[in-house]
Amino acid sequence: MQVPSAPVGHSGDSMYSELQLPYFDDLSKQSNHPPPAFGSLPDSELPHKYQDKDIPVIDWPPNSRLMHEITISTNDKPKLLSQLTSLLSEIGLNIQEAHAFSTIDNYSLDVFVVDNWAPKTSAHLKPHAICPVTEQDQIGISLVSNLINVPADLIDVWEIDAQQLIYEKQIANGSSGDLYKGTFCSQDVAIKVLRGEHINNKIHSEFAQEVIIMRKVRHKNVVKFIGACTRPPSLCIITEFMSGGSMYDFLHKQQGSLNIRSLLRVAIDVSKGMHCLHQNNIVHRDLKSANLLMDENGVAKVADFGVARVQDQSGVMTAETGTYRWMAPEVIEHKPYNHKADVFSFGIVLWELLTGKLPYEHLSPLQAAVGVIQQGLRPPIPSHSHPKLAELLDRCWQQDPSLRPEFSEILELLQQLDRMVADERQDKRKKKVS
Where is the ACT domain (predicted)? Predict the structure, then answer.
């Protein structure tokens, strides 16, 4: 049996390298890749022939973190790793390391090292649990309840070997890089590659900042970060592939339009993602429909953190960045700004969803920017708009940032409006029947 390993994280010099041969000496001879961690298995769960061997004991430093190891075995299938990472993220676990194995007879073994598992709940873990994934498949999850301590300053576990990436086709290009659809560990991924001839100190710094920010955020409405190649000459960021494309393409290139229920669903998704970013003190700084991507189920996710920044303790920034048609006036004027600049941009996005048009379509980007700061120019709200939605738009793009709502309030208002629209539709149906 051939078992090709596809680790996401450590190479052979990882903290587990001393434990590889005792557990997988037969398999390791067949593969150049390291096996999964299994560092927390108690002696009773070791293969019988190794129980009498001396296993090195690692003395972790006092500033280490408490971690758990989750082992999942099931039938192999496309996008399995993506589905499993989504499952663990949605229940609140932070994945620090992942290892995926598959066999030639279509079985899969996935090992995750996670944190954010409340210690008080660890004692109640059962050795095995069954978690149904689809109606046809079930995944057996072995939860190892022994806590293992991982040093907080360990080598970056998200580093990916560029040779494990398979490029399929280019789907977009930019001034300094290209975006490809590809595969990694048998799952579809998007690969954002920096072109070597354009890499300077500024671009390299933005690349590093983007990796740091994407590692920090795990949310179902933020495009999922899978890993990165940070060692020249291969500089790229790998994320989940969003087969639905961008909201901009849907609205402006396919000339699509959204009814009120679809609009609210997208707006609620985006609000959840942005609320998560702001809770983590991250300002996106380039929120627009082109940076909202859709998955195969129509779920909207916030993407592209190339100019995003972590807000410092002062809570203000001054650099002009973003796209003029969506940019807050204080950003255009190089005035100090904070996370409320994203709220202004969200107001423009809401208008896009409502109208299916390009903001200030009869003006150049620079003319639009001048109109916003000198004349208080805003896109015209259609007369047929729901009054509550029109009111929210007006609040989001207030000139004074302090008058704009937080995303927590925006989310609550949108959910209330969604329920109100559903009730109104139901009342209309009742009237037709009667």
Answer: 69-146
